[in-house]
Amino acid sequence: MKLEFVSIVATFALFRSVFGVKRELFKTCEQNGFCHRNRHLANAISNKHGSYSSPYSVDETSIRISEEVSAIEGSIMKKLPNGKAVELPFTIEVLKSDNIRLTIDEKERSDPKSLRVADKRFKSRRFNEASKYALKGEPEISVNAKLTKESITDKSTGEKYLSIIYGDESEYEAQITLSPFKITVYYHGQPEIILNDRNFFNIEHWRTQDQQASELSPEETDYGTFKDEFKDSQGDHLPFGPESIGVDVSFIGYDKVFGIPEHADTFSLKDTTNDDPYRLFNVDIFEYETQSKFPMYGSIPFMVAQKKSATAGLFWINAADTYVDIKKGSPAQSNPDQIVLTSEKSTKTHWFSEAGILDLIIMVDKSPLAINKKYGELSGNPELPQLFTLGYHQCRWNYNDVDDVLDVSEKFDNFEIPYDVIWLDIEYTENKKYFTWKKGLFDDHVEMNKKLAETGRNLVAIIDPHIKTDYQVSNDIEKQGLGIKNSDNDDTYHGHCWPGESVWIDTFNPKSKAYWNKLFANNTDFSGDETNLHIWNDMSEPSVFSGPETTAPKDIVHYGGWEHRSVHNAYGLTFHEATYDAMSKRYVNKRPFILTRAYYAGSQRSAAMWSGDNKSKWEFLKISLPMALTSQVVGMPFTGSDVGGFFGDPSSELLTRWYQAGIWYPFFRGHAHIDSKRREPYIAGEPYTSIMRDAIRLRYSLLPVFYTGFHHASITNAPIITPLFYSNPENEDCYEIEDEFFVADSGLLVKPVTQEGATSVSIYIPDEKPYFDYHTHELIQGKGSHDLQAELEQIPILMQGGHIFSRKDRYRRSSKLMKYDPYTLVVALDEEGSAKGSLYIDDGETFDYKKDDDFVYVDFAIKDNKLQSSVNVGKQTPFTELLDKVKVEKIIIVGKDISFSSSAKVSQNGENWEAETIGINNNAFIIRNPAVAINKSWTIELN
Ligand SMILES: *[C@@H]1O[C@H](CO)[C@@H](O)[C@H](O)[C@H]1NC(C)=O
Ligand SMILES: *[C@@H]1O[C@H](CO)[C@@H](O)[C@H](O)[C@H]1NC(C)=O
Ligand SMILES: *[C@@H]1O[C@H](CO)[C@@H](O)[C@H](O)[C@H]1NC(C)=O
Predict the structure, then answer these.
(1) CA 704 to CA 213: how far, in whole Å?
(2) Where in this chain does the record put each Glycoside hydrolase family 31 N-terminal domain (predicted)?
(3) CB 3.0–4.6 Å: which of 199, 213, 806, 824 could bond 890 by disulfide?
(4) Inter-axis angle of helices 402-414 and 445-454, nearest 10
C-alpha cells in the first residue's frame, strides 16, 4: 500500500508541488549530519591533491596472526590533532569461498567501564549485531589461506604490508598496507578492489562536546555532531554525538556497478558527483520520483561490479542510515590525487553509515553467477516458496466484505482467468486494529477462506507493526514491555499511523516474538483452522506519520539497549521474521508466505517483497524492470511491482501492457489505491480483457519454469529473471540493458513493451546463437538489435537455441488444480542440434522436499537426434509415485536445420513405442502424445 493521507501531508500537497513535499519531508545529504560531514571530509581530502596525510595506521606491535583461524587481528591507531590516539581494534578474516571480511570496532566504547552516556538504558558499545540479521549464520573460515608471519616492505614504495594468499589455486592475494591503513585485493595478479584508496577512511571516535574542538582535523566539520538541524528531528538527542564510520572502495577496471537497492533508478548505477549519494534508509516514500537516489522502503547494502574478466562484490554489513557515493571515469578524468594502478576505467565508491561498527565482506570471482552464489552462502538463499505464490495475486485497497471477495473470485472463473490469491488491505479490520475483523462485513471470514480453498485459492490479510492504542493487543504490548521505548524514559513509544495513535512492537525482543506467535495461532479471534491464510507485512520501515522523515525517531530504544539509529534498516526484517516464525508454528509443515515492504539483506530467507506504491504511469511500468533486475543481483529475487500502478487510473492500454510485463515479475500481483477505480482484468472489456487473460494464462503455463527457477535460486541464489550480462559477461554492450531479461535459465528472452502506442520493439540479442520467436518459431540470429512486432496483443519473447523447458498448457482456475496436469516440452536447438534443460517437481506446499527428499528432478538433453530425460535426484515416495500418471502430452522441437522429420521412437521402463509426429513446419517438429511418465527416465530417437 499506500500513500500516507495523513492530514498534514495532504495539506502540504494542496499548497506545494509534489516535488516540494518530498524535499520538505526527507533530508538531503547536506541536511543529514553524518552525510554532510563525510562528504565534507572527502572533498577536503580530494582538494589537497595528495598532500593529505591520513591519521589512520596499523600499530605493528599489536598484530596477531593466526593461520589456524585464517585471521589477522590488531589495532588501527587514529592520531588526533591534540596528540592523543584512539584505538580501533580490527580483524581481517579469510572466509570459506574466498571472501575477505574486515571488522573495525572502537576500543573505548566496547569497554563497559568507560560508559559516558548518562542514560544507563543504552549500551555504550557500537552496534555489532547487523551481521546477525544480514548473514544466515556465523560464516565458515577458509582452510586454504596462507598468511605472512610478519610485515613485508614493498621495494618500490617503501610501504610495509601484510599478505594473505588464498583460493584453491592461490589465485587471490590480499595486501594490508600498514600506514596509512589500506587493503588491496588481487585476483590472478590483477588488483581488483582497493579499500581506502582515496584515504576517506573515517571512524568518528567517542568524544564530548568540550573535547571536540581539539580532536577534529582541519579537513573535518562539526556540522550536526551534537545537534540535528533538520526541522522534524529537533527532538533527536544524539546521545553518542558523532559516531559515523566510512571508507572509500575502488573497483579497478570496473566501469559498471549494480545493486544497493532500493532506488527507483537505472539498473547500472550512476555517478553521484553532482547529486546526492544513493541513500539506504528504509522509509515510506510516497509520491516518489523515478530516476532518483532517494531512499525507499528497503535496503540491501550489497554492490556488484562487472568487467569482462571478473565480477566483484562488496557487502557492507551495517543497519544504520547509509550512503554510497559513486565516482566513475577513467583515471585521466579523475582527481590526480587518486592512486592509479592501471590504465583501465574504474569506479570509485565511498560508503558511510551513521553508527555501528565497520563490518564488510569483499568478494571477487570469475562471473556474476559465482558472486550470487557467494552472497547466498553468506546471507542465505531465497527460500523455496509454495507453488501457489507464483500464480497471480489479486489485491486492492480494499475488497469491502465477504460477498465482495467471493464475487471477485467468481468473476475470475466466469471469465476463465486463473488466479491463486485474493488480498485484503487494512479496511478488513475493526478500526484498523490488527487481528480483528470488521463487524457485519467480515463475520464469516473463516467460511470465506474455506470457500476460496475449494478452488485451491488462498487469502492474504495485512498485519502491520503499528498497533492501535487502547485495545487488547496494544495493552498487552505496553503492559509486558514489548514495544519500542521512548528516548528519555522507559515507557512505550507512541506515534501516529493508519489507526491514529499507535505503539510499535519491538521484534528485536524475543519475548515480543513469543507474543506475536500466539496472535496467529489457530482458532483465535483472528482465524479459525483454515490453512489458506497468509500474511502481508506493510508499513514496516517503520512508517510513522508523525515521525521525522515519516519514520521512527532515531533515538528511541530497542530491546538490548540499542538505539533505533543503529538498527533501523533491520527492523522490517525482524518484523517479517517474527511473522514467518508465527506462521510456521501455525502451519506445522507448510512453507509460510509473507510479503514485506521494508527489507534488509537476509530478508530473502523468509519473505517476498514488492516495490511499494507505484503510480499508474508509463514511466513507473518502465522503472519496475530495472528495479526487479537489481533485486536479482542482490539476492532478493522474489519481487514485483503493483501491476497497473498503485495510485491513479491506468488507461486500458497501460493496464494491458502492465499485465504483459507483470507476468514476468517473480511476484505477480495487481493492486490499486482506495481512490482508484476497480480494474480487475475482466473489467476493461474487449479486446483488453482477452489480452490480459492470455498473458495471465501464459504465466500459468510457464509455472514449471518459474518453480524450477526458484528451486535453483534456493540452492545457488541464481536469478529468477536474469540480466543479460549474467549469460554474456564478456559482452560489455549488454551490461546496462535494463528493459529485457532471460527467464531463469530457460533461454526465454523477454522485452516487455513499456511504451505507449508501440506496435514494435527493438530487442537486443547479446550473442550469435540462434533465437526463435516464441509463437511463430521464426529464426532471428545475430548479435545486435532486431525489430520485433509488438501489437497490443503481442509480447516480444524469443527462445534462445540450446534450451529445453517445460510448460503446463491446460487452463485451470488455480495452480493447485494443475498439480497432476500433463507437461508440454519445448526444445530450442542450438547450431549443433543440441539443447539442455531441467524440471523440478515437488508437492508445492510442504518441507518434505527438504526433510524426506520428496521431489523429482529431471534433466533433459537432446544430442545427435536423441532426446533424453534422466530422473536423477530425489527418492521414491507416495508423491513421486503418483507422478507416474503425469505424462508429457506434447514435445515441440524448434531448430534451424532440423535433420529429422518422420518418426519418434520412444522407450521408457523397458517398453518401446512409436509416437505420432507432425513433420517440420516453420522450424518446428512436433511429437504428439509421447505418453512418457514424468517420474522416470526415457529416451526418444528421432528420424
Ligand atoms: C492449525 O490447524 C491446522 C489445520 O487443522 C493443523 O494442521 C495445524 O496443526 C494447526 N496448528 C496448530 C498449531 O494447532
Ligand atoms: C513504483 O514502482 C517502483 C517499482 O515498480 C516501486 O518501488 C515504487 O514504490 C513505485 N513508485 C511509486 C511512486 O509509488
Ligand atoms: C514413478 O512411479 C512408478 C510407479 O509408481 C514407480 O515405480 C517409480 O519408482 C516412480 N519414480 C520415482 C522417482 O518415484
Answers:
(1) 65
(2) 89-325
(3) 824
(4) 10
